[in-house]
Amino acid sequence: MHDHDHEHDHEHDEGDAESRRQEELDLLRRRALSQIRQYPDVALRMPAREVEEFDDYLVQLVERMIDLMREAQGVGLAAPQIGVLQRVFVFAPEDEAPRAIVNPVLKLEGEKVTEDEGCLS
Q1: Residue 83 DSSP code
Q2: Which pLDDT belongs to residue 4?
Q3: pTM over 0.85
């Protein structure tokens, strides 16, 4: 009977640990989302400036954005979403390391394609 009680306690501990881990992730996500501007925030409508200096500030900005994106459980984040009006965004391709794009230029070609959006803002 002692072995059975021990086995049951171990399963209960694993469930508690998983529950606590999920609560921690939820709290982390809520904190991250609280730092991300939400529509109709004016910063989301303003044009972002081109990045002119590739310096430590830019490296720190990208690192902060990647951390926020991960904590918010997102797959992409643009600098204006955190109130920084610079042309920078980060994204995490599936099963790859996060990447940063600085001063992107969109070139529209071909037919229009629409998809659902999952924006953090």
Answers
A1: T
A2: 56
A3: no
Kindly state the tokens that stand for 83.
């109130």
Nearest to 48 by CA among 100, 84, 89, 76: 84
Q: Which two tokens stand for residue 58?
A: 């830019």
> 21: helix, coil or strand?
helix
- Interatomic CA distance for residues 15 and 29, integer angstroms: 21
- How far apart CA 102 and CA 90 sit, in angstroms, is 9
Local structure of 62: helix, strand or coil? helix
Is a pLDDT exceeding 90 seen at residue 20? Answer: yes
For 67, counting Cβ atoms within 10 Å of its Cβ (0-12 exposed, 13-18 middle, 19+ buried), the class is middle
Q: How many C-beta neighbours within 10 Å does residue 43 have?
A: 15
Over residues 41-85, the pLDDT tens digits come to 999 999 999 999 999 999 999 999 999 999 999 999 999 999 999
